Structure formats: structure tokens, C-alpha cells
Amino acid sequence: MHPDQLAALDAIATHGTFEAAARSLGVSTSAVSQRVRALEASLGRILVSRGTPSTMTDDGAVVLRYARQQALLAQEMAGELELEPTDGEAPGASTAPVRPSVAVNADSLQTWFTGLLRRAADRDVVLELVVADEKRTAELLRSGRVMCAVSTTGARVAGCRATRLGTLRYTPSIAPALLERTRRTLGHEPTAGDLPTVRFDADDDLQDLALAAAGLPPQRPRALVPTAAGFAAAIEAGLGWGMLPPGQLAAHPTLAAVPGLEPVDRELFWHRWSITSPSLDALSDDVAEAFAAK
């Protein structure tokens, strides 16, 4: 597998079309197509599903992950050796800062993950963050879209290793005004089953887990609010109750506990490519420290 072939595959995955990939590489569309066809022929596999956009096949995702791992290692080597750019490379390309890509869920990014951002700033690290539900991280890792991810499962992803970060506690939280309004409407103290919920998105099951632990059925949410700040604001406004992690809960001290419900503990794991990489080693240490200090 020639580096030019792997770079063409990476560019297609990044930009979505052969034409855009060619522009990013400074070559013709025909050259990109020839490189990908040669790579497919050498492996005996179809790697790219041609279309608009063009996407990686399952086999293509495997090759893409290794292509990006190889590019990361080459970039780290060039930086350590302080290599000058080769012919055709832009000035500084060989020693450009490594850009670790990380998938992280929105409420972690809003709370404990800010400690990682501060550490990255102190070390002048350039990060590429992908906000995604913790359950989607395996897919992003397998596809090569990200190098590292925060996940709720410790199940191993091919080409990666996982370490347990610890437990994050989510507390059922509600605006006192909503409790009082419901109390007046019912004429008695409300239970969790009487109160409307809000969810972060369709995959958010934390509210249902809290209800199930109390022996109550799941509820249809009043609204889906898919940003961390907006979700907490919706709860504070009295739209419904929802589950908040410690950092967000501390930022909204007027909220009350939902009657009859207990907090839900969710384990978090850190996944990263299993290659030996100083950049990923340092990032992993920073993530562990940030979570421990939450």
C-alpha cells in the first residue's frame, strides 16, 4: 500500500467526493480515482462506495483506520526528527501539530471534559472534537473517524484498547415551579409518574432507567433538547424533569430532586487506538486526570 493511495482514501473519507479529495491533495480527480482503484486491486476488496457522497465500505473503514494511524505515526516521527518538507509538501507540513480526533458526549464536554481542554491548551495540543452519544463511539472508532472516544461500554473495538475512567452520577432534577404547578393541578403531592420529562435526544435512556428503578413505566418526553446547555435550561424553565451530571447540577442550584427517584450511575470508558503514540499516550493521561478531578 503506497502512502499516496492511503492519502487518497483518507481524502475521500474526509471530503466526501473524488473531486473534493483531488482539490485537497492538489492532484487531478483521475489521479485520485487511479490511486484508489490500484489500492482496491492490490487488496482484492472494494473500499469505496461511489456516489454523492462517496463513503467507505466496511473493508474501506478498516483500511482507512490503518491509513490514519500510519499518517499519525509519520507525523509524530517527522516532528521528533524536525524533518523538512519533501517535494510537493507545503512548508511546515511535516512538522504540523498532530491533531488527535476525539468523540465525546455533550454533557461530558460541558462538564468534566473541560479539564482536558485546559490541559490541552497548556500543552498547545490541537484537538478535533466530535460530539456524539456515548453509544455511537464504537462505530466512529471502527470507521477511523476518530482516534479516541469516551464511551459507556468497555467492549473492545478492533484496533483499540479501553480503560475504565470511573462512574458518572446523573441526578433526576426538576424545577420547583413545575413541582408546585403539578401539585396544584392534582391536588396532592405528585410522583415521578405524574411529571413530564425532557430528553437530550431519542437515544437518551437515562430518564427511563431512573423510572424503571422505581418500578415506573417509561414516559413519552415533552421535548428533545439536543444541547447540554439547552437541556439544563429546559429543566430549569419547567418544561420537564431530566437527568443531570454533577457539573451541570452545580451550575443550576435552584433545581430540586424528583420525588421518588434515585440517581443513576453510568460507567465511562476511554477508548484509543492501540498503536504506540506519544500524542495519544499524553492525551489519555490528561483525560484520566480530568475525569478524576471532576
From TrEMBL:
The keyword Transcription applies. Residues 1-57 form the HTH lysR-type domain. PROSITE patterns: HTH_LYSR. It comes from the Bacteria. Pfam families: HTH_1 (PF00126), LysR_substrate (PF03466). GO terms for molecular function: DNA binding; DNA-binding transcription factor activity. SUPFAM superfamilies: Periplasmic binding protein-like II, Winged helix' DNA-binding domain. The keyword Transcription regulation applies. Keywords: DNA-binding, Transcription, Transcription regulation. InterPro entries: LTTR, LysR_HTH_N, LysR_subst-bd, WH-like_DNA-bd_sf, WH_DNA-bd_sf. Coiled coil: none annotated. Belongs to the LysR transcriptional regulatory family. This is LysR family transcriptional regulator. The lineage of its organism: Bacteria, Bacillati, Actinomycetota, Actinomycetes, Actinomycetales.
